[in-house]
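Example 4.3 (complexes with small molecules)
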Amino acid sequence: MILIGNKFVRYRGRFAPSPTGSMHSGSLVAAMGSYLDAKSNHGEWLVRIDDLDPPRVVPGASKKILTTLEKLGMEWDGEVVYQSQRTALYQEALVSLGELDQIYPCICTRKEIAGASVMGMNGPIYPGTCRSCHAIREKACAWRVKTRDDLIAFQDTISGSVSQRLSREVGDFVLQRADGVYAYQLAVVVDDNEQNITHIVRGADLQDSTPRQIYLQQLLGYPMPTYMHLPIVTNSAGEKLSKQTRAAPVDLSNGLGQLVTALRFLGQQPPEGLSNSDIPSFWQWAIENWQPNKVPRKI
Ligand code: GLU
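Answer. The structure with glutamic acid bound is encoded below.
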């Protein structure tokens, strides 16, 4: 149990892979960090498949990811949840934001936005063209949330204090695309709240998205979880491992070796003998000796 405000609640963590391909050493690090932090706090660890964006989903990838987790001895609690089956929840949240007058339809094309905006940390900062125009839209439109200039800040367990001014650094961001697909930023906030997630442990590539998620939590009246952003595994060209950078899948013929390598990457110091043990002994040692303060701070 952990104390949040004046209430004791059970630690609930999660791993939320996108089924765009097999697990590789980068996603293994994210899975391991979230698993160890949950288990060392006697918490629950849930798995949620981020399969909201149909063109990015690779058939069979979810199944492969789950089999890999199983073979590596990472047991999740409860049923696996699929974002593609939860669109009614995202719709409900979007309607609530509409009732609060915090969203507006946008019909700008990518080209129009690129031509009229300055670059922010995650692409062009939307110049707000559609924010003040209340014309009835006949064609499909995206929905954006109105951002503000207040400082949004949080304490990351690894990076320390992180803050952003959304309107200046990111701009009004999309919650639902013109093709109807809900944006990751909205879905993740709704799901983490609906699943009572208390701790989010994930890759540092998502640290810049966290203020957007905290802002949505504030608008929707959700509690803020604790955040820990883990260093990212890169290839020799310094690129994040992903399907695009052709990351090699986790080699299950040497599962234990891959686990030990991932644990070392997370700054932990397993004894030499652990590499010759077995998967249950690996997890027993790793859970008992997990020290988040040893995880390197590297983005
Ligand atoms: N699905 C995201 C990814 O694979 C992670 C989402 C999250 O942990 O919030 O990068």
